[in-house]
Amino acid sequence: MAKNRQIVLRERPTGMIDDRCFEVIEEPVPEPGPGQALVRIQYVSLDPAMRGWLDDRDSYLPPVGIGEVMRSGGLGEVVVSNDPAVPVGSTVNGLVGWQDYALIGGEGGRATVLPEGIDPIDALSVYGATALTAYFGVLDVARPETGETVVVSGAAGATGSVAGQIARIKGCRVVGVAGTEDKCRWVTDELGFDACVNYKSEDVAARLDETCPNGIDVYFDNVGGEILDLVLDRINLRARIALCGAISIYNATELPPGPSNYFKLVTCRARMEGFLLFDYVDRFAEGVLALAGWVAEGLVKHRVEVVEGLEQAPTAINRLFTGENSGKLVVKVA
Amino acid sequence: MAKNRQIVLRERPTGMIDDRCFEVIEEPVPEPGPGQALVRIQYVSLDPAMRGWLDDRDSYLPPVGIGEVMRSGGLGEVVVSNDPAVPVGSTVNGLVGWQDYALIGGEGGRATVLPEGIDPIDALSVYGATALTAYFGVLDVARPETGETVVVSGAAGATGSVAGQIARIKGCRVVGVAGTEDKCRWVTDELGFDACVNYKSEDVAARLDETCPNGIDVYFDNVGGEILDLVLDRINLRARIALCGAISIYNATELPPGPSNYFKLVTCRARMEGFLLFDYVDRFAEGVLALAGWVAEGLVKHRVEVVEGLEQAPTAINRLFTGENSGKLVVKVA
What we know:
The structure is a homodimer. Chain A is α/β, with parallel strands linked by helices.
């Protein structure tokens, strides 16, 4: 009889995720109830926000409970279905969790059927949550205008890389911030950013001055910390800071100080605004359509890193925080 | 021959303004040139933002130069005029500076003629810059809706007291934060705030929990510092933080850490936005009219503290930072 491997939370991490946090268990493959479907998972997604779901505090989603399967986006094939809208053989995308099989519909997770002809990896990357986050964050929150200077941190990440390319499409000067020479080169040479600052090896303040001679109109922030402060010190009148993430603090055991230069928001009549993809569910189709057009025209490029094996997920997710990965990080389950 | 006493900047303050910063000099009363008018100053205004004008850094206005008359709002009577739009005997309001006489028009300062029948003190207080700042900050930036919870820091100050009353008019639950029992009592008993937290004698976190049981939808911030952080930790979905000032840091010699909890802006999809009254010049008439209506209905009350004598200005301005004053602080010059 087929088994369902599940990676369940055993202990909440303090700082980085380690061996004590998760355990692989085996359960029987569940039977779909009325209106439900059973999905054999092919890929699960690893995203920085997942680290926040492990902390025991109120947030936009409840924390993953001890003993529960780790929550994650992912995608798989429907193998049994009691829901005519989700036929056997279709590929679905949703919050499937770190496991081999998931139930969707009814009391199971929510998922959407992928249109035919879309590569599963593309569905998780350039048409997935990270790319849509970039799409709505740039166009709805940051709203850059032609000729403006846009800075993107985490520029080689799945979200930042797309955010910067969208700002380029909108006619902006785009400066990335990333953590290796390789990432910086990819961002400028392949993705077409105007410049990229290596925050690990360069003087970020001096390089921002150099690469943003007219100041900064928009900051798409994935990182927080010191870079946010350095950007605030260089913003222009009516600047917009779209707060997407703060990967520099997700593993902090104590909350570090906030941006000292936040008062620049007053002198520049500027705005700092947070957003979450969940609020744009009704507009996902619009976003995917726009991204698909840009991908077809070669205006949005992306990179995917595939890790083999479900059991690698708890180790691989740390690559997001150490800066080892670039582009979208996924785990191949089956 | 009449003399013009002027208070000029001698040395930039480090921390609080002290005796070394300003000097009183006497100059001849200036002659108005073509298109100019000479104003005998009756009152000058003391405002927290003036402290920022003394620091040697780029901001929304150039710093007051060493040897220059201290910039300030104020009001006086036109005594000589070469501008038919500004007749002798009219009262004008503008950036007149700390002195007995000012030139307006041409290369002099900008000023507007006060409509007849308005008390000069009212023109500087409840219809003045601080009240207009509250008006536009609340209605244009914070945009509170009926039933929302609004917190106002510096609640007994010239701006905060009006901001809170406008939020009350809009049907909000309004909680002030102030620094003495007297101020708190004035804010609740006279101005009609629902509650007021004494940040010097009370546990602010506990009192915010108690007075804002449904969380905080809007924060009108005059203060910055720790209170901003405590408020951020209690904001609701789609909260708006209107950054008006940060009086707690104006005299700091080094920029203190920013708000650690700024990431709540992401989880709550909230916005923190700075604003300046200067941007609303075109709508001053609208603001004054609205305020006048509310004053007439008894819905907006105010308090003015008058210090006698121009030479008192450099000492009196510190009352804003020590928390000694409440309401609008002005200096009677003549």
